[in-house]
Design brief:
Number of helices: 6
Number of strands: 0
Largest sheet: none
Structural class: mainly alpha
Order of helices and strands: HHHHHH
Shape: flat
Length: about 110
């Protein structure tokens, strides 16, 4: 999938009222799912919520990729491990590989 970003680097969330309203609706849905969890939630319930939230995050990504990158939970991976993972990728969309290489190159700065 090819994600289109504004050339000035601004998020559509801040420049388009339609995008903002749509994303705000998605964020409310994510919050409602999270609020439904408690200390007594089973692992299955937690997994269902994580899966549902992941689907909503994909919708945010489709509306505004820049905003998606800012709000998506991420995991820090040591640079040597990230480079090893990149060397093992096969059949992955070229856009994703290009973005990951860009991020790894920026980490060297």
């Amino acid at each position: 999938m090819n994600f289109v970003c504004r050339k000035d680097g601004l998020s559509k969330y801040y420049t388009s009222e339609v995008a903002k309203n749509r994303i705000d609706g998605y964020l409310r849905r994510i919050a409602k799912l999270q609020v439904g969890l408690g200390k007594d939630s089973t692992e299955e319930e937690k997994k269902q919520v994580r899966d549902a939230q992941a689907e909503i995050y994909k919708k945010i990504r489709d509306v505004d990729y820049i905003f998606y990158c800012a709000v998506t939970p991420s995991v820090l991976v040591p640079l040597p491990i990230a480079r090893k993972i990149m060397s093992l990728l096969q059949g992955v969309d070229d856009d994703i590989v290009e973005e990951l290489n860009y991020l790894l190159d920026m980490s060297d700065v």
